[in-house]
Structures are given as C-alpha cells and as structure tokens.
Amino acid sequence: MKLIFASNNKNKIKEIKNQLPDSIEILSLEDIGCMVDIPETATTIEGNALIKADYIKRHYGFNCFADDSGLEVEALAGAPGVYSARYAGEEKNDQANNDKLLRELADQPNRKANFKTVIALHYNGEQHLFTGIIEGEILQKEQGTGGFGYDPLFQAEGMTKSFAELTLEEKNAVSHRGKAVAQLVAFLKHKED
C-alpha cells in the first residue's frame, strides 16, 4: 500500500515511518513533485489537517493523509494552538517559538499543557480523522537535544524527561502524534485484511 503524506517536514516523516509496518510505503510531497507550501488557513488543528489532505486528493488524486499538531497551554487560553509553528513569526523558527513561550510563562505557576495531533486521511473515497492528545507541562527551561519544535520544553504526565530527551521509539510510544498514527495504522491494517 502506498500513501502520500502531505508533508515535507523530515522530522515528522521520520517519526511516522518509524511506526508504520513495512507493508505501508509513505511518499512525501517532495516524492510526488509537489513543492507548494499548502496554506494552513483554518482556525483549528483539524481544519488545517483537512486542508492539506484535501489539496493533495484534489490535485493529485492519491490516497493520502496529512497531519497538523499544536501545543495548547492552559495559562495561555490554549495558545499557541493552531499557530504553534508560527508562534514567534512566519519564519517557523523553533528556537524563537520556545523563547517566546518561556517569556509568556515567566511568572506563571500554572504550566499545564497538552500536545494535540489530528491526522486527516483520504482513502478510497472515504475521509477519516484520527486524534492523539498527550497531557503534560511546560518546563522552566529547555532540556535535551532530540526531537523538534517544543520537545525540549514539554514533559508528559508521569515522565521525568522532556520529549527532547527521549529516543524516537520512547517518544512515539506516548506522544500525541504516536497516538494518532497508531489509530491510522490500525485502520489501514484492517483495510489490508
């Protein structure tokens, strides 16, 4: 089975490929010659995932999926949320985003947050959504050098390490994206049977 993953984010592609069985081949946007930066104009994480999947289905006709993720911080009324990648500006700079988040929470005792991923799948004329959420908190300073995005600042409930201190396998076992991908894989395996 071949599926287009509507992304050129090499970190996301690596995380997702790591979870998929060998029977499912993932192609990136680059692999199909799509160099368009698909606009993410929705006001929700679900909406952005759907926009990206719909674009690929409409323009290329392939079975495909797209994801969108966001960090939702309780003390910031759910921000940065759908704007997580662009929190500090349009250039999507992870370090600038992390620095801004730490500034925003500098005097805030409530550091509860969650990561949320929604995967939108177009498969043989059907559309499906898979959602993964992980609860946790924002650390006082960055810890670890792995992962990407807000990983050095996010510590999941019940863990003693940030996402950036976990191996890829450890992160995938508990993360928001890992949970959503597990649902996607279960669905696709059922379709293969």
SSE order and pairing:
Layout: E1 2-5, H1 10-19, E2 25-27, H2 45-60, E3 64-73, H3 94-104, E4 112-123, E5 126-138, E6 154-156, H4 168-174, H5 176-192
Parallel strand pairs: 1-2, 1-3
Antiparallel strand pairs: 3-4, 4-5, 5-6
Features:
193 residues, alpha/beta, Maf protein, 6-stranded mixed β-sheet, 5 helices
Provide structural commentary:
This protein is an alpha/beta fold. The protein has one domain (2-192): Maf protein (Alpha-Beta Complex), CATH 3.90.950.10. Helices cover 32% and strands 23% of the residues. It has helices at residues 10-19, 45-60, 94-104, 168-174, 176-192; strands at residues 2-5, 25-27, 64-73, 112-123, 126-138, 154-156. A six-stranded mixed beta sheet has the order 2-1-3-4-5-6.
Strand content: 15-25%
Q: Any guess at the CATH architecture?
A: Alpha-Beta Complex
Weakly predicted, low-confidence segments: none
Task: Note the run of SSEs as H and E.
Answer: EHEHEHEEEHH
Taking all residues together, what is the mean pLDDT? 93
Structural class: alpha/beta
As for the number of domains, it is 1
Helix content: 25-40%
